[in-house]
Amino acid sequence: MEHWVEFVILAALIVFGGSRLSKYGDVIAEKTGAGRAWTGLILLASITSLPELFTGVSAVTVAGVPDIAVGDVMGACVFNLMTLALLDPMDRSSPVFSRIGQTHVVSAGFGMLMLGVASASILLESSVPSALNIGVYTPVIIIAYAVGIRTIYNYEKKFLVKLVEEAAERLRYSEIPLKRAVILYAANAVLVTGAAVFLPFVAGRLAEETGLGTGFFGTFFVAMVTTLPEFTVSISAARIGAYDLAIGNLLGSNMFNIALLAVDDILYAGGPLFADVSSAHATTGLMAMIMTSIAVLSISYRPERRAVMRFGWDSLSMLAIGALNAYLMYLKSG
Predict the structure, then answer these.
(1) CATH 1.10.760.10 for domain 2-333
(2) Predicted TM-score of the model (pTM)
């Protein structure tokens, strides 16, 4: 029970600090004129993924639980896509996929590419070539992320500017001075970092005590905690009608999360990271790819009808696949 209390406290700190990081990052962008188009969709995704970053770094360095790091990233991708599905009933007038821009197909496509590279590499395990204890998949993931971000920004530049300017009109921060925003941003960053560093230790102990295994615990419990900032930000954006901003954050976060696996691999001293983790993580990666493909089809097809309780069949399918993934990971932990 003691470790569960510690886990809940760390989770609360991450949610509290993570949700405020994005707000004060947006304030800094507005006050400095750094360009809200960039911070609104690309940097925002990076900011809300800071818990995954620090949790992964701690897991592969001091805590020594690589399954927590990989499970957190893969599980976070699934949870982000489930959050995307939960946005559907928030708009009473039409399905969410019929309201957003086709430009999200690009980020979704790069997300599937990176998930595919990671999942295939996990399945191949020790067969993947390596150099200096780093798997060949690491530079591939880094290059894919860099190319993806550049492509998305160039492709969506005009769309991004219009989108974020529209959202910015509803989110003016005239009452918050720049100095205060910087201080609060730094304070919340420290809070999230500290909580995320300790999270793998507590999660590892709980995984051992419950017998669930670090793979399942990382994929479900840790991932659920570290994705709560994305959930909070995306729900808030949807409430003001900024659905493109919400979905751009979720899909961008998935790209950033997979890129974090490259960081974890570089920092992991035990050799290529994927050689020391459960192959079950490839299942989570595959489920995330299927869920992303449903999103791509829905964005392209633009459905007009809903199935039940203002959910479309696409959203219900994504939620069902997310639940199925949790069940399969539970079975594999036994």
Answers:
(1) no
(2) 0.84
